[in-house]
Amino acid sequence: MKVTTIGAGYVGLTTSCVLADHGHKVICLDVDQVKISKLERGEVPFFEPGLQELLDRVLKKGTLTFTDDRKTAYYHGEIIIIAVGTPPQIDGSPDLRFLKTALTDISEHLSSHKTIVTKSTVPPGTNKWIESELAQKADRKLFDVVSNPEFLKEGTALEDTLNPDRMVAGGNSAEAVARVKELFSFVSAPWFTTSLTGAEMIKYASNVFLAAKISFINEIAAICDAYHVNVEDVARGIGADPRIGPAFLRPGLGYGGSCLPKDLSALIYAAKSKGINPKLLPAAGEVNDSVTKSYVQRLELLLGTLRQKRIAVWGLSFKPDTDDTRYSPALTFIRKIQEKGAEVLAHDPVVKETSEGIISQPDPYSVLTDADALVLATEWSVFKQADWGRVSRMMKGKIVLDCRNVLNTGEVAAAGLDYHAIGRYQ
Ligand code: UGA
């Protein structure tokens, strides 16, 4: 099929590459010319495992091209995939500016039939609105709209796209939904079909449930800590119940990234705009905000004060295997300890510099000289395999605060270091 993808971010680029690898003829459009130039040179503009190799392959096959020329892009696709960003605004609602621009462009290029597939995460009612907006500007027979939310995770984007748990399609036209199923016919996951708005709600409810699950285990971890109970045992014990499930029960600094915090705020906003006052959803966000504070307090307690203390921090990205630092709990933690007078030296395996001006030092050990404490903020696997003897010899203090409950406590202690975590006891 001829496909146009609008947006070359994690969702747009991964989807484009995978579709192109499965024989579809794909043009990927982005307004960011720097990004497009990089992609034309064959460079993936962000860190995502496996994506560079796949891009190399599809560029060789000639099934994927990039452009910033809207006319070329919109003319090409019989399927138009909208994968533009919907970043959060101050009031919690997502900014639909990029989506609206895409719609205007689509309406101006509807010379033949197009199936518009919305992958961007959009508030309930948006796809219905897209349909009515287009109907005002163009012949109704020339387009269909299908809401096809994306569930891929950064760090495992490719695997998630090739082997998703489920596919969701919402739409008013059975033929259009069938076309989208055909587009992804290489996927063996079950399809759930619903209304346009139903699909939007599935996406929000999924992300918000995951956020609530993380906040739940973080609250349980705090209680476990007070009772000297190992929260991992509790997570395993409750996770064995299929009604609960073991995934997403890892306690720590809380959730970050460009999706969970944004979608939680957006769903609260959407509920309030209909006169509904949710209670559980804001609580999930409040717990998430409070976990960083708990770790800051723990470090302060361990050191007596943070003033003029030198703190080594491992990890800047919002989770391992990505260079994305948007809403990274590691950065919130760093900002809070800096406000309390700490000097921070950080290292991340792929992040070079954050928008806050934190520069990643060249290697994990270079941040340790004279450090009063080491904080593990993001659980990159390289940190789990650290040479703890070397860490111990380089640091001034002995405190290791594991904010992700992942380090081998025995190895850390054997090197003469004082291991600390929240809710981790043997
Ligand atoms: C999330 C969803 O998991 C995807 O299904 C969805 O498609 C995506 O948002 C999106 O809407 O685009 P992502 O933001 O890439 O994916 O990352 P997650 O793996 O969900 O992690 C989110 C945060 O939760 C991270 O900060 C991670 O460290 C944290 N987390 C995750 C925990 O603190 N504990 C856990 O047990 C799991």
Describe this structure in words.
It holds the Pfam family UDPG_MGDP_dh_N. Pathway: Nucleotide-sugar biosynthesis; UDP-alpha-D-glucuronate biosynthesis; UDP-alpha-D-glucuronate from UDP-alpha-D-glucose: step 1/1. GO terms for molecular function: NAD binding; UDP-glucose 6-dehydrogenase activity. It is a single chain. The chain has 426 residues and is an alpha/beta fold. The chain has two domains: 2-193, 3-Layer(aba) Sandwich (Rossmann fold), CATH 3.40.50.720; 195-426, NAD(P)-binding Rossmann-like Domain (Rossmann fold). 43% of the residues lie in helices and 14% in strands. The protein is built from 16 helices and 13 strands. It has helices spanning 10-21, 33-40, 51-61, 70-76, 97-108, 126-137, 157-162, 174-183, 196-226, 231-239, 260-272, 280-303, 329-339, 381-384, 388-394, 409-414; strands at 2-6, 25-29, 64-67, 79-82, 114-118, 143-147, 167-171, 191-194, 310-314, 343-347, 373-376, 399-402, 418-420. The strands form two sheets. An eight-stranded mixed sheet has the order 3-2-1-4-5-6-7-8, sandwiched between helices. The chain has a five-stranded parallel sheet with strand order 10-9-11-12-13. Strand 4, helix 5 and strand 5 form a beta-alpha-beta unit. Helix 5 (97-108) packs parallel to helix 6 (126-137), helix 9 crosses helix 11 (260-272) and helix 9 packs parallel to helix 12 (280-303). The longest helix is centred in the middle third of the chain and has 31 residues, at 196-226. The radius of gyration is 23 Å and the shape is globular. The model has no long low-confidence stretch (mean pLDDT 97). The chain binds uridine-5'-diphosphate-glucuronic acid.
